[in-house]
Amino acid sequence: MQIIGYVLIIIAVGRFLAELFERIGYPGLVGEITAGLILGYVLRNAPAQEMNLLAEFGIFFLMISAGLEITPEELRMGGRRAFPVYLVTLGVMLLLTLPLTGYSIGVGNILAASIFAVASAPVVVRLKRFFGESYLHVALSYAIISEVMILVVVYLLANIESAGSPVDMGLTLLEQALFVGIVLYINYAIGIQHKVWLMTRLRRLRSDEAVFGLFMVLASLLGFLSEEVGMHFTIGGFLAGLILHSDLVGTRQYERLETIISGVTYGIFAPIFFAWRGMNFRADVTVAVVYITLAVYAVRFLVTFVLTWDGSTRSSFAKATGLVSFGVLGLLVADLGHEYGVISGELYAVAAFTSIAGIFLAATMGRILALTGGGEAQ
Known about the structure:
The protein is built from 17 helices and no strands.
């Protein structure tokens, strides 16, 4: 079968199950991941190289969509509240990994703790109906912080042997920080001095395709520059979505862009990405792994509930539901760690299974909130 045949089956089955899950109150991504888990046993001869490329486009567009959901100011304000929550969560998750490694601390523990503490920005966006728009920027800020941190861990893991010295590695991290800072500063400067000029020029564009084309040039450029400084190219996609917010480009241009991006992302590439990650799920799931996964979710949920407590049980429950969403990025990182040989056995199985099961658990908790009328966090 040619690649287009596999794409046809994945999109068709993914969209069918996504619609089915939407009808029973779950986010469509749950159906898309379910489709991948099912198809993994059927499409065993799918061309991995081509499918990986399409899946890479999927995570790229998902990160762009996540960036469009939040402004730099909201990220800054949300980050102030989310960063302490992430640090405490990471510390607690690190402690949870110790029994799985004989109470010894290594790179595998740090990687697993990062997976247990992560929240996926694309998943948070798709779950926002459950915990409310008012807390979206905090949840997204947490997700971005956790995703950047886990990608940093993966970068260190991949380059620890090739790096000439810790100084070289430190300089690379500094270069990455400067890159992000420069992009955000340019966005700030344009917003202050050239906002009207930019909005005027965008209004002169005669088609939605022209707006989309210019944006994709920007997103691709930032993605390329991200990889040049040692970051994952999806960070560039997120930055592109982040800086082109409605306050900068105008509401009309923003809505035109968001409509096209949403169609391309959730109509084509997102189903492929979620399904492909599901098809690549290879962890050996035992009863013990299931019990440990439930324990990890319960502990993280309780920690998040306490750290985000605002005096209202229902509101704090909704916030914890939004933050404790895990994500398929964790599965991808677990697979990379397994390939590098730093995470294996039961620890790998728990990390991989938690990344998938956590999404289902978060969606179920959100569904309970929706049924009980508690879906809007204040």
